[in-house]
């Protein structure tokens, strides 16, 4: 069986400025890959390409669909791509206001995704939504509140429920814990780690925080100026980095 995701030679320029160049990696089902690097290293560009929000200059993204067939992300029609991103894949954004519908209730935010997969029975949609809110530690009595009334941590947990309710096989995460208090971050990371393991999710997580990469990922790629400079098992890369740039990145965290 081929990999769930095969990324080959992805490159993107913004005019003359390099976003990312020649990024390649495979991701197996159930595997968590962290993409780390300093600000401006191309992490967000890579994730936007994987979410088909940007078109690459070169390269391709191949994924295995639910029927086991390998598909080319950029060859899909717009409607098919949107359906894929709403059902088989998920995208948890750094800014929850971009990943949620802020004027729709929490229950509606989760239920909407179920409807995208064909659910029609109101009572079942509502009970599944409430069940998922519980799994992300949001009380049932908040079901009818909009996320505007939620704290930052609650919004991120709601995004997680909204994304996972359709049992996606791949979830893209963009700095899901940054901007939150340290104690809120720790709880959220614990929750994400538990759900990823329980559901056997494949994840590509972008983070500038090596502790997040250590906690969640099996493998990591290190980016610098748009290019991958090192890749390997997370513990190996963090404990024994081969590249001077990674050594610097790791030691600057330890010194901090
Ligand atoms: N819309 C854009 N227009 C022009 N240049 C861009 C655009 N988006 C990103 N870039 C440039 O592409 C390069 C990679 O940026 P990118 O945002 O992918 O890095 P990053 O690692 O995600 O950084 P951060 O952690 O700060 O989000 C940078 O030089 C950036 O200035």
From TrEMBL:
* Recorded GO MF terms: lyase activity
Report the Gene3D superfamilies cross-referenced here: P-loop containing nucleotide triphosphate hydrolases
**Pfam families per the UniProt record, alphabetical:** ABC_tran
- Residue span(s) of domain ABC transporter: 5-250
| SUPFAM superfamilies from the UniProt entry | P-loop containing nucleoside triphosphate hydrolases (SSF52540)
Q: Which UniProt keywords apply?
A: ATP-binding, Lyase, Nucleotide-binding
PROSITE patterns linked: ABC_TRANSPORTER_1, ABC_TRANSPORTER_2
Q: Which PANTHER family match?
A: PHOSPHONATES UTILIZATION ATP-BINDING PROTEIN PHNK-RELATED
The protein depicted here goes by the name Phosphonate C-P lyase system protein PhnK
Query: What organism does the record attribute this protein to?
Result: Roseomonas elaeocarpi
């Amino acid at each position: 069986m081929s990999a769930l995701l095969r990324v080959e030679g992805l490159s993107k320029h913004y005019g003359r400025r390099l976003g990312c160049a020649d990024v390649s990696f495979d991701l197996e089902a159930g595997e968590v890959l962290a993409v780390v690097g300093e600000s401006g290293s191309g992490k967000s560009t890579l994730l936007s390409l994987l979410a088909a929000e940007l078109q690459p200059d070169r390269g391709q993204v191949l994924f295995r669909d639910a029927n086991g067939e390998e598909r080319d992300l950029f060859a899909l029609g717009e409607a098919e791509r949107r359906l894929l991103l709403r059902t088989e894949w998920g995208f948890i954004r750094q800014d929850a206001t971009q990943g949620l519908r802020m004027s729709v209730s929490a229950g509606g935010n989760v239920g909407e995704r179920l409807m995208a997969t064909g659910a029609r029975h109101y009572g079942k949609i509502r009970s599944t939504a409430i069940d998922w809110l519980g799994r992300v530690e949001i009380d049932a009595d908040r079901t009818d509140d909009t996320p505007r009334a939620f704290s930052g941590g609650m919004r991120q947990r709601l995004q997680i429920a909204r994304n996972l309710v359709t049992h996606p096989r791949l979830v893209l995460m963009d700095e899901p814990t940054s901007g939150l208090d340290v104690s809120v971050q720790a709880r959220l990371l614990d929750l994400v780690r538990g759900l990823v393991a329980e559901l056997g999710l494949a994840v590509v997580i972008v983070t500038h925080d090596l502790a997040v990469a250590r906690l969640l990922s099996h493998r990591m790629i290190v980016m610098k100026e748009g290019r991958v400079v090192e890749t390997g098992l997370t513990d190996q890369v963090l404990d024994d980095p081969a590249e001077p740039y990674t050594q610097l990145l790791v030691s600057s965290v330890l010194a901090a």
